[in-house]
Amino acid sequence: QVQLVESGGGLVQAGGSLRLSCAASGRTFSTYAMGWFRQAPGKEREFVESISRGGRSIRYADSVKGRFTISRDNAKNTVYLQMTSLEPEDTAIYYCAAQQAAPLVTYSRANEYNYWGQGTQVTVSY
After folding, report:
1. Burial profile 40-72: b = 16 or more Cβ within 10 angstroms, e = fewer
2. Residue 116: helix, strand or coil by DSSP?
3. How far apart are the C-alpha atoms of 43 and 47, rounded to whole Å?
């Protein structure tokens, strides 16, 4: 099992940047594919980006292409989401998720992940 704790959310003006972190417990972090999802009020949870367990494969949603970057540091048991050029439409609770996977595998559907963090709020003002 793995436990996930997100941090780094906050209030930022449009055009600004934030970096989210997701710290994982346990000694097998490097066997998990990781993902970031977000959920805005009244909307379904949506995929943002995912990364394979070794970091060589990345998948992203079109809405964040060129603006958000996922990365991971397996030595620190942490996955990151660097967000730039933020827009009010990016306002949501951001969740990280984990699922054990084979090398190079990434997942983009929420039901493919068994482990979730509690979320961190990101609010982008006009």
Report:
1. eeeeebebbbbbbbeeeeebbbeebeeebbbeb
2. strand
3. 12
Phi first, then psi, for residue 74 (nearest 5°) are -70, -25
Residue with tokens 């084979």: 102
What would the two tokens of residue 107 be?
A: 């997942």
The tokens 């039901």 sit on which residue? 111
Judge contact between 109 and 35, C-beta under 8 A. no
Structure tokens at 8: 């780094």
Q: Distance between CA 41 and CA 93 in Å, rounded? A: 9
**pLDDT tens for the 126 residues of the chain, in order:** 899 999 999 999 999 999 999 999 988 999 999 999 999 999 999 999 999 999 999 999 999 999 999 999 999 999 999 999 999 999 999 999 999 999 999 999 999 999 999 999 999 999
Cα separation, 30 vs 55, in Å, equals 9
